[in-house]
Each structure stands twice: as C-alpha cells, then as structure tokens.
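Hey team,

Sharing the Rieske domain-containing protein run so nobody has to redo it. Sequence (177 residues) first:
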Amino acid sequence: MGGLAAAGAFAGLGGTALAAAPDAMPPQVGDFLVSPAGSTPLTPDSIKLDSKPFEAVAMSPDGVVRNAEYENTVLLLRYDPATLPAETAAKSAEGVLGYTIICTHAGCPLSDTLKSKLLACDCHGSRFDPTKNGEVAHGPAVRKLPQLGLGIKDGQLVVAEAFDSRVGGDMMGEDDR
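Structure output:
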C-alpha cells in the first residue's frame, strides 16, 4: 500500500484507533499515585524520609491504574523540603519527589537503591541527583531525568504537572529534541 493510500485508510479513524488505552497512558494531571500492585492512593507519609526510592504508578480519579507501560513507573523519594533547591522543591509535595524510572541514556530502568545519594542506572553507569531536579551527575546520559510535578489532594499524592521533559532513552546520547 502506498503512502497516500495508507493515509487515506487511516483518515476515517478519527485518530481514536491510535490513541493509548487508559491503562497505558502516561501519568495525567489529577491522577493519584499508587503502588504498582495496589489501588490505594499513597500519602506523603507512605514515602519515608531519606529512604530508598519507592516505585509507584498513576491511577486516574475513576480508578484506572496506568501500569500497562513500564515507562509510566515513577520513582518517589522524600527529603526535608528545606534542603531542596527552589526549582526541585516547587515540584515536590511535602518533600516527595517523583522521577521517571527510565534512564535517559538507553532507556534502562533505574535501580531502586541510591548509590552515594544518587539515582543509578546499572546498565551503563549513569547517575542522577534527585535533589537537583534530576540533573546528570555522571554519564553517559546527557539529559536530566524527567521530573513529575506532585501535589496533595485530600491528603493523597496526586500528579500536579506532567513530566517536565520527554521520558525515554536517547540510545546514542542525543540531546532532547
């Protein structure tokens, strides 16, 4: 099928056939954060101060858990808000920070343990500083970790802003496009 014929074949679909299923969508503003196997919204107290990263996924207000795509997994960490730089603290909820679990170098998952207080990718050795807006502390990654803006609604952690940059690996260390 030629390019124009293919375009014509999809023209009548109205774009809905290519839309992500609700459980595969990335975290959306207003979503709650839950453990990957749970459906109870997390609270700031669910995330212990200065402890290892906690894996979470988003859950829509109507109960759809967005865990069909691993790229949607969020690492939550909690720090004393007074110790965070203003830019990082602005996206936190009572010191709870949310970052993608996907390394920006080659798309590998980050470790769930901190290495010298840095988020680490064991595939190629990249390290990211969660207290500094996810900036690269050690390559080969060249792009910071996407940070999810968090808020609190009725005492529960919610998505307040989408990821601040593209989630996923660059494969060749290319800059964000």
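The first strand starts at residue 32 and ends at 34.

Ping me if you want the raw files.
A.
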